[in-house]
Specification:
single chain; 5-stranded antiparallel beta sheet; N_methyl_site; Pilin-like; transmembrane helix; PilV; membrane
């Protein structure tokens, strides 16, 4: 009888248990890494959404104004070439911040976002104003921008 008991042993060997624990640990670490990556992506998406919302709010404020409102005076000559929203020097030189006319009460900087706009008169057609609102933010040393364009017609 003791011979039978020795040949019928069941269970896992120590090596099988160590391999299973190693695989489980690798899986848990991979899931943790995936969560960290997802949090970073969510944070970036939140900043892009905030920038888009700020630009949209500024465009809406400008849309409600009359065509000849001083806030919508031309700030850029469309014949001077293309405006590059990614070029920081172009952004600083070609754009007004929101301290123009009576819109000085608008925030020009909100939680690390800088809001700029420019107006091109009679572009792309006569009696039209093209308004570009650019929101710039610094993401760990990298300047990122969101730009929205709107064409306001004279009625």
């Amino acid at each position: 009888m003791s011979m039978n008991r020795a040949t019928q042993q069941e269970g896992f060997t120590l090596i099988e248990v160590l391999i299973a624990i190693t695989l489980l640990a690798v899986g848990i670490l991979a899931a943790g890494s995936m969560q960290i990556s997802a949090l970073g992506g969510n944070h970036l998406a939140m900043r892009i959404t905030t920038a888009s919302s700020l630009a949209g709010s500024t465009i809406e404020e400008m849309m409600r104004r009359e065509y000849d409102d001083p806030a919508l005076d031309a700030t850029l000559d469309p014949n001077e070439g293309d405006y590059d929203p990614e070029d920081a020097a172009s952004l600083n030189n070609a754009l007004n911040n929101l301290e123009h006319a009576d819109i000085a009460t608008w925030p020009s900087e909100v939680e690390g976002f800088e809001i700029f706009y420019h107006v091109a008169e009679d572009y792309p057609l006569p009696d039209n104003k093209t308004i570009r609102v650019t929101v710039r933010r610094d993401d760990r040393g990298v300047l990122r921008t969101v730009a929205l364009d709107y064409i306001k017609m004279q009625f």
